[in-house]
Amino acid sequence: MDLDLDVANNVLSGLRPFPVAVTTVDGGFANGLMSLSAGAASIIPEAPRATISLTKYNKTHDMVASSGIFVMHLLTAEEEHLDASLHILRTLGGSSGRDGDKMGTLRTRTGTTGAPVLLDAHSYVEARVCASLDIQESTVFVGDVVAAGTLHGGERLRVGPAWGRLPKEWIEQYETNHVPQLESARSHRFAHTEAG
């Protein structure tokens, strides 16, 4: 049976319904990004773990690899906090930390790990990296959860409705900014394949 990329990508995208804001700190510099590749990594309720997959193109990747800490946030879909959720999404998903401070306009507090917790998020878990897996273009980080909290109740923001509320100009800029990340990922993946 041949690989139908449209079907494969449709199946896999259905496993990523929530945009996740990831923050970290390294050497006194805080940064973050938006991810669709995050989740739970343990079935043991008294010892939760979180997992994030970060492409090597992103500054946040290098910072998590160096500091060994990250905070994973879900955003709220509740109408009274939706503008704040979309602000987080646009801020962390719209530019690179290599271009300057992404955290300055976001409301934060310092978490247990020292990384910033986004006060306008729905909920969060803080984690210390206990394992990682290099998968050519990305690294999968698994962290022991050391703190967690709910900041706003109600429904969690899903990627489809969130994307539908973003300005067209921002989406166009996002797509433009995403091109070098995809090129970097392809370079890492296919260079590894050709070398091996």
Sequence of strands across the biggest β-sheet: 2-1-5-8-9-4-3
Unreliable stretches? none
CATH fold-level name: Pnp Oxidase, Chain A
Structural class: alpha+beta
> Alpha-carbon distance between the termini?
25 Å
Reconstruct the topology from this structure.
Blueprint: H1 5-13, E1 20-26, E2 29-35, E3 38-40, E4 49-55, H2 59-67, E5 69-74, H3 79-93, E6 108-110, E7 116-118, E8 123-134, E9 138-150, H4 159-165, H5 168-195
Antiparallel strand pairs: 1-2, 1-5, 3-4, 4-9, 5-8, 6-7, 8-9
Walkthrough of the structure:
This protein is an alpha+beta fold. It has a single domain, classed as Roll (Pnp Oxidase, Chain A). It has helices spanning 5-13, 59-67, 79-93, 159-165, 168-195, and strands spanning 20-26, 29-35, 38-40, 49-55, 69-74, 108-110, 116-118, 123-134, 138-150. The longest helix is centred in the C-terminal third of the chain and has 28 residues, at 168-195. The mean pLDDT is 91.
Short description:
With 196 residues, this protein is of the alpha+beta class.
